[in-house]
Amino acid sequence: MAMENGGLILLVFLAFLFAWGLNRFRKMIRLGPVAYAGVMITFVIVILALYTQTQR
Predict the structure, then answer these.
(1) Which long-range contacts (CB under 8 A, 24 or more apart) does 24-33 make?
(2) Measured between alpha carbons, how far is 45 from 15 in angstroms, rounded to an integer?
(3) What is the largest CA-CA distance in the chain?
(4) How far is the C-alpha of 23 from the C-alpha of 15, rounded, in Å?
(5) What is the reported pLDDT for 1?
(6) Helices 2-29 and 33-55, interaxial angle, to 10°?
(7) Complete DSSP assignment for 11-46
(8) 9 neighbors 47 (Cβ within 8 angstroms)
(9) Cα dist. 44→1, 2, 28, 34, 39 in Å?
(10) Where are the domains of the chain?
(11) Which pTM value belongs to this model?
(12) How far apart are the C-alpha atoms of 33 and 26, rounded to whole Å?
């Protein structure tokens, strides 16, 4: 049970790291807020899909 929570904490940490990196990248290439939101939504869906696959 502790390993499952550790994996979830790791996924949340990776999500924050991804968001921080994407924000820096967005400023460099001047990405609009709609495109930024689209990338974040796609990332969340992929991470949730990977997390549910590892729980089976």
Answers:
(1) none
(2) 11
(3) 43
(4) 12
(5) 42
(6) 160
(7) HHHHHHHHHHHHHHHHHHHT--HHHHHHHHHHHHHH
(8) no
(9) 23, 23, 22, 15, 9
(10) 2-55
(11) 0.55
(12) 9
The length of the chain, given as a count of residues: 56
- 56 residues of the chain, pLDDT tens digit each: 445 566 777 777 887 888 888 778 877 888 778 887 888 888 888 888 887 887 66
Residue bearing tokens 């796609």: 42
Query: How deeply is 19 buried, as exposed, middle or buried, from its count of CB atoms within 10 A (0-12, 13-18, 19+)?
Result: middle
